[in-house]
Every structure is written in C-alpha cells, then in structure tokens.
Fold these 2 entries.
Entry 1:
Amino acid sequence: MPAAPVRDDFDMSAVTDRLPSIAAQFLDRVRRTPSNEAYRFPVSMGGEEVWSSLTWKQAGERVLQYAAGLVALGVEPEQRVAIAAATRYEWILADLAIMCSGAATTTVYPSTNAEDTTYILTDSGSQVVFAEDDDQIAKLRENRAQLSEVSKVITFDGTADGDWVIGLDDLASLGAERIAAKPEEIYDIVEAIGPDDLATLIYTSGTTGKPKGVRLLQGSWTYEGAVIQGQGILDESDLQFLWLPMAHSFGKVLLSAQLACGFPTAVDGRVDKIIDNLAIVKPTFMGAAPRIFEKAYGRIQTMQEAEGGAKKKIFDRAFATGLKYDGLKREGKKPGFVLEREHAVLDKLVFAKVRERFGGRVRFFISGSAALNREIAEWFHAAGILILEGYGLTETSAGAFVNHPDDYKIGTVGPAMPGSEVQIASDGEVLIKGPHVMQGYHNNVEATGEALEDGWMHTGDIGELDEDGFLRITDRKKDLFKTSGGKYVAPSAIEAQFKAICPYVSQFVVHGNERNFVSAIVALDTDAITEWAQSNGLGGKSYAEIVGSDACRAMVQGYVDQTNARLNRWETVKKFIVLDHEPSVETGELTPSMKVKRKVVESNNQAELDALYS
C-alpha cells in the first residue's frame, strides 16, 4: 500500500508534534501572535462599506466569552452545536467558541430548507443553534415542535425574544459571568480535548435520500493544518481571502491551515463581490471552486471580444505567445531570445493587467470541490497566475491531495498529503487512508461500512497515479455511463472541453446513459450572454428571450461543433437543450460550493431530454 511521497524539505514534525485539537491550536495561536491581524471583514459605516479587523488577542477574548456562554447554557463535551449562516467572521468565531467549549459543530448551509434543517438538527442531536438572521430563525420556529433538543438559539443579526432566541451580546454576557466565577474552566476543558474527539458534523448535500452526517475528528483538522504548515506553503506574511461556504469542508480546512500557519483572513461570503473584493483586499492566496475561474476566464474573454480591433489582436497575440513561452518553461526548456523579449513586452501590456484584476499580489489560487479544466488552468498560468488544483472529499476533511507551489503538474491534483496512503483499486477507484479520513457517518452504520473498508476510504472517483505519485482524476465513478451501443462515456471530460472553448457557458451537463447518442443540457452565464446580446441585435431582451433566440442557439451550436471535433465519434454531442435560466443554489441545481447537481438538472428537464430521442 504506497505511502504518499514526501518532499525533502517537508517538516514531518509539524504533523507528528501537532496539538491535539482545534481549540488548543487556536489558543496557542492567540498566545504566540496576539497583536497580529486575525480576521478582516466588511462593515457598514456612514452609509459606506469599509473593512474592519480583529487581532488574534481580540478574537481570543470574544471566542472565550462565547465558549464560556455555551458552557453556561449547559453544553457538554462532544455535544453538537449547529451554525446556520452564510460565510462571515461571526461564523468563524462561533465555530471556534464551539471548539473551545469542547462541543462539536454541526454545519448547516443557509440555503437549506426548513425540512432538511430540521432533519440535520434532529439527526445530529444539536443542543444549541447559531442562526444568522430572522430568515434562519423562521425555519427553526416553523418546526420547533420537532426540535425538542434545541434549548437555545443564538442569532447574529436576527430578532432576539429574550427566551428561546438570544443575541451574541447576550451570549457574551453569560460567558463573562461564567469566566468571572470560574476563570480556568475553559482552559481545563480545552486541555481535556483529545484528537479522537468529535469536532464537526458536515451533512453531505446528496441528490437522493436524506443527507449523511460526516463525523470528522479533532485530529483530522489539526492534521490538515499541520500538513500545510509542514510544506512551508503559507506563513504569517500571507493574506487569505475567504468566501467559500463555511458549511463546506473546503472552507473549514482553510481555517485549520490559518491556525497552523498564522496568516490573517479577509472574510466575505458574497459570491457576487469576489472580484471587487480581490481588488480591495489584495490577498496572496484564495481557495475557490472551478466555477469562479471559469467565470473570470469567460468574463475577460468576452470583454476582449467587445473591445475588438487592435486591443483584441494584442490580447490574442499575448496569450498565443504566453502559452508557447509557458509550455517551454514547464517542459524545462529555455525560450529563445526573441520569444523571451516578446513575452516580456506582452507581459507588461496584457498579463500585468489581468493579474491586477485579482489584486496584483496573488501567489497562487487553490482550486477544489470539482475538476478544473486543464486549458483554463494553462490560460491563467500563461498570465502569471498559478492555480494549484487539489482534491478531497468531505469524508477526508477536504484536503487529500494538493499540488505544491514549487512542485506542481497542471492537469493533476498533486500527490497525496504526507502521512497518508493512496491506492488505485482494480476498477480504477481512488482509495485513501490517513488521519484525515472520517470516523464514519453519524447514525448510519450501513453507509459507513460501504464507504470504509479496513480504514480505506472508497472515494467513488476514478483516477490514475503517475510515476511521481501525482493523481489525475478521470471521472466520477457513478457518473460514467454506457450508451445503448455499448460505448463508455466520461461526461466530465466532455464538459470540461466545452467550458474551455465557450466563454458564455455557465453549466454543460452531458447526458446519454443507455441512449443511442450523447446529448447535453446547456446553461449560459447571465452576465456573459447579456453582453453577447448587446453585440448581436438582442440588447434589452430578457435572459429567456436571449437564450431562446435562433442566433443564440446557432452560437452554442458553433461551440458544440468545435468540442465535437476533439472527441471520439461515440462521445460527440448530437443534440442539446438550452435552459431558460441559469442554475443556482437557490434553484437547487447547484451545491453551495457551486458544483452542479447532475441528477437534479437531468430530472428537472427529463421531458425535454426524452423529446430529443423521440
């Protein structure tokens, strides 16, 4: 069973000597760098939005008060406390307070409906709930009769009733009284937390049946942070911009990395503000889902199309040169003198402006939660923006594989984390073993037995390892399908090809299981297609009118034809549907991490798909 390859400069002591819990990590960070900035966040002041911040000492004081308040409310070690809120700094402080009280965090996406919220809270046995606002409180009140175990709701911005619902200030006051009476209590609780204690319950956003609660231990999270620290990828001089949903493991793992490495984090979960915030915050790194990079790529491409003329020619020349130059460099070859000079000039004219859109200081982005198209990664790399692709599951505390800034291969998700193991099963499935693998599914022995066998996590993904231990994911095992002609098709590979070509696409879902040919469901990006409409005689039309036009369909057909030219005959997309809306979290067709729910999209358009084959 091959262990993960370890770089010569990796500090294994960071893993072997790591602290036993997230709470201990947090208090250690507060002690070591009390005056350093910990969190930065937007606030409204005088009708304008400005950024405020907390030092580690200030964060520590708030967290300890909240933690003591939870203990005063009767919360005991490993009991569950839920958070139903969008990404914001209060979410992080609440999570850290739960950790310091010895309890475990149940994460609830703010978009989760009342029925599923009730299921998650009852299945997890959550005793207390942090609810962001009145909308979240309303979900709890709707089914309060079923939430008999929830003794108290603590709201960030909602209306407190002084009884079942209290505010953060009320919790802090309870905590201050508790600390005054028992000043050492929280420290004693933190000292008693071990690596095998439950830290987090994250419920998977399944498309069928009820979601499963993934049990992640304290030692899993501290391992994740320690691995990043041991690789020397990040340190106190870095600045993270964090927008990812904190109810998702990708967001959570970046918090453990922060505690281990000590960098400050700017927090704002508003997806529509990401690009604007990058220009203001000027981070050195950010984690993101591939959709963010696809959207930025499409936006820049469509802007250049609209510019036209000399600017478009210079832009196209720059990327043709950049891709050639970059390809030689990654192959270890030296570009010639003429290419070197041309690249230097075009870097100042074009690439520097692209980098500036992302703040101008980014050392690298980390891409996860879904596959990143290789061509898009190479496009960004040619502009001097490194995207390190990683891979993992909620069941592996997010991070299981990741590329290193000094040792990466575009098109792979990197090697397995040091201190873990990986093997490829006979059918190509990726199996993982290590400290980051879940304890199991909460209250679900059967599902746990199916996923874990002798400690090996069966990921459900198909992949292959190269000679250096770098993993390439080829598809999701359950997404592979066979046409009625007996040919196997990997839909994600086709989808990635289309997204690399078409700058107007939002989602492209390939369909064809047991069908006699492959078809697709196409959704177009609202902003990009609105711009396209302005230049194609459809300005002022609604989204539905634009995407339903003959001109738009002909445009999509052109990109489908280009994609088909790259595919095997049996993989080619013969027919397609263009949706009259863009899938979103709100429509239930995207997960909160912006990954398409394939089965939901297919089910919602079953009649239209059937009509393609009639």
Entry 2:
Amino acid sequence: MGTEGAGGFRLIAGRYRLEERVGRGGMGVVWRASDEVLGRRVAVKEFLPDDSLPDDDARRRRERTFREARAVCQLRHPHIIVVHDVVEHDGRPYLVMELVDGPSLAERIARDGPVGPAEAARIGIALLSAVHTAHEAGVLHRDIKPANVLIESGTDRVVLTDFGIAQVEGATTLTETGSFVGSPEYTAPERMSGLRTGPESDLWSLGALLCTALSGESPFRRDSLGGILHAVVSAEIRPPAEAEPLLPVVLGLLERDPDLRLGAADAERMLRTYLETGRTPAAPGGHRPAGAHGIGRLHRIGGRTHKPPVAYSPTRPDLPEGVPPPPGPAHPTAQPPPARPAPRGALVASLLVAALAGAGVSAAVLLLHQSGGAGDGTPGGTATTPATGTTGTPPFPTPATPSPGRTSRPGTGAHTAPSGYRTAHDPAGFSLAVPEGFTRSPRGERVYYLSPGQTFRLGVKVTGPQPGGPRGVLERSAAAGPENNPGYHDGRVTPTTHAGHRAAFWEFTWNGFSAAEGPRHTYDLCWEENGRLYDVWVSAPAGKVREAREYFDVAVDTFSAGG
C-alpha cells in the first residue's frame, strides 16, 4: 500500500511522506509527515477501511469522506485545525492538515491535572468561537472531547482538530445510517437517541468538556457503556464542585432540551465576562437550565416570575444557618399542582434502547443496567430504574410483606440504642436512637439531629391528622418535590405499615441546595399513631446511602411516642 521512499517511509500521492505515527483519531491514524513539494511539516490522517462493509457501501463511504473533508477544508479560523488537502492513495482517503506541536487537552490534564476556571474559560472561548464558525458553514464536528483539542506549545493556542466524523448539514453522515459515532461521555442526549443532530449537540459536548477540564473527569463517566448512556439521557446532571465559578455556562450548555440549550455566542460572552470581572453572569433572557442548582430559585411560568411554592418537604429546612424555614403548615391542603408531562421514565427507557441499539449494544445490557448493575459505587448516585423511579437500595416493606415493620436488628428495640447510638428523649414528646455526635437543632415545628458539618440530617415532625392520612401527606409532598428540591428525581411514595399502623414511605434523590453540597438522597416514613401524625426522615449525600439507610432504620425502629 504506498510507495517506499528514502528511509523506508511511505510516500502518499507522490508528495506526502509519512514518518511517524503520532496518534489515532475518529476512524483513522494520524501521522507526522513531510510535504515534499512545499517543504513543510504536516499531519496526515489515514482513514482506515472497514472490511465488514460490502464494496458498494465502502465506495459510498469513501465518496462521503471526500465530500465532507473538502467542506472542512473551507473552514478558516485560528482555533480550527487547517486542512491543506484531501487525497486518495491506493483507494484510501487521506486528510492533510497543519502540524500542531503540542499535547492534546486530555494529555495535558493527565500530565498536569485539571485547569483553573480562568484557563477553562479561555479554552471554552476559543472552542465556542471555533464551533460557531463551523456551524455557520454548515459543518458539525460531532466528536468534541479533550483528546480532540490541541494546546500548541509556546503559544498555548487552542486548536480544535479531528473533524474525521464531521457532518455537513443536509448530507448523509460519514458513517453508515443508523450507526453511532462519537464518544458517549461527550455525546448529547438527542444524538444518543438518534432523534436529532444539530449544532446544539456540539455545544452539549463543550459543556461536558469544560467539566472535564475543571475537574479531570466528565460528569457522565461511569463504569459501563450502559451506565454512561443512562447518565447522559436520564440521570440528574451534577456538574463538579470545581465548575462553580462557571456554573451558568456549564448548566446552560448541559441543558437536555436542545431548543433551550445555551447558544455559542451567549456562552462565549458569558465566559469573556468572567475573565474580565471574575464573575459569570446569568444566561440572557432569564434562561435557567433544568436541574440548575441554587437556593431561592425563581421559576418562569406563562412569562411571569414566581417564587417556588412552600409545599411541605423534609429537605426545605436543610438550608444554611440564618435562612428561615418556610412558614405555614407542614402539610398544605391546597389545590393539587398543575398537570405535569408524563413521567420521563418510559421515555428514558425508549431513548436508552435506541441509543444502545445505535451503539451496537444489545438490549440485554440496558436491562442489566436498569436492574441495578451499576451498583452503589457508580459515580453520581445509586443505581436507578428509570421506568419506575426506584433506587438501588432495598425498598421499604409494603403491606404485602409478612412483617409489618422492618427487619429488626439485635439489641434494637423501642427504647434501646444500639452500639454507636444514644437515646434522645426529645422535649417535643418523643424519643429515638440517634448516632453519637449528632446534635439537636429545632427549626419551627421540626426537630433535627445533625451530624458534624450537617452531612447527615435526621428530622422529626409531629402533627395532628391530615387529609388522606400518611399516604396523602407524602403524595402531596412528592408532587411538589421538583419545586422544593432542586433536581428532584426518582421519587416514589409507597403505602406500607409501621408497627401495625397505617404508614407511607417516600424516597427520592435531588441535587442539594448548592453545587458544592452535591447530590443528596432522602428516606421518609410517615405514619398515624394514637391520633397523631409522625414523620421521620434522613437526608444524606447520594454517595452515602448505606449509612443513611442505617441511621433511618434505627431511628424508626427505636422511635417511641411520648418520650
């Protein structure tokens, strides 16, 4: 395949001598080479053949490669790799590009660690400007990731490279119809599902890239392909704490709805403002992406701005010191909230099936993942089943369970504190076992027992009977979950019994009240006993659900009315 020349190096198209393989890109190998006609150093990308394709498909693929490579050749931007030529040799296409002397962003992060917010903003500005130019020319990159961003030595110029799987708007893609190309951790959900590909998909990839630059890891990294696809399409988006200075941009780019995603020009202006002032402004037009973090969020409904409703939630008093808990009754009996769209679970499941099928993965992988294959160790939270919203932890017993209560532990009784716990006789008229070191913190009608640093929050509330009983109380609370708990998801209310009394169990995950705090998980049991309504809950970091469940079970098992 190629003509041997001096030193045994291959000569391509009579002028480009391949000297050293320097890496692999999408669908090909990249060589350091010399242009013997102009006497300059270049990089040459060799597109590798797919021997599994029939001859006609291989020919069509080669023709598309040439057509789309020629379109990329027309792009002129300081932060886009310069494509000098596209040639054919021995029936195989080669892309001839400028040679950028320097590491990729991925190599730089691996060598030196994550970058600071100012450097991330600089890189983001360069890439946003580059993709804006490409999009205006009708070219979508489709594989933006740290490995495809070069940092030129000596100048620190940021260069977007490897348009090997680029798509010219309106043309058939480089790869065969129905196949999946790209890097899943950086691929937009609408591309995963095969529903849509447009400029917005590149912007999602840039949002994930910024997170990686700032923290060293994509927010969608998981241990399996199924886990990655679920994280991209379904799981709550949790930017790293290091992204806090640039959070409005990151969240705007990682908006799942491509029609609401932050545009390239706006994102670039926001990052430039950060470099000039040290603060990132809010997205223009009141745009606030779904799943955004923060306290006291404002919601836009029908063109008007509203404060979130103050429906009961066990997490609402989980505010920083000095922020008062919501006023009013614990369990509102107001009109039910407006009808919401159908649960996302069924849609998510169908999207995951489509995405996995597009990636060449069997549906069995999806089913394994949905049944908890990711396990408690999966970064970003517990394993979930999107179609039902159940979490990977054991469900609370239902009335069909032979025993009406939880499985008791040795030494755990109504007034007995197991090892590592103490019995708290609360002035509010109840007693329970709480972990040693937890301190009492009354907040209005609620009583909290908090771990050092408030990492774990155990709460109790005692009221009179409420309409609908325990189940009605928690179902109203769950309906208002998204308003009271930023990023609320995977919530489910289950009717059950507790010590022979009518009860309901509520479990859900949410983002916490700040990006620094991170995602949290809550267990809540509400029951009626002797004309009173008791509510006990535990809120904890999503990565510590095992400890949280232990604290919750002990609190409920040892709870005694009357102190």
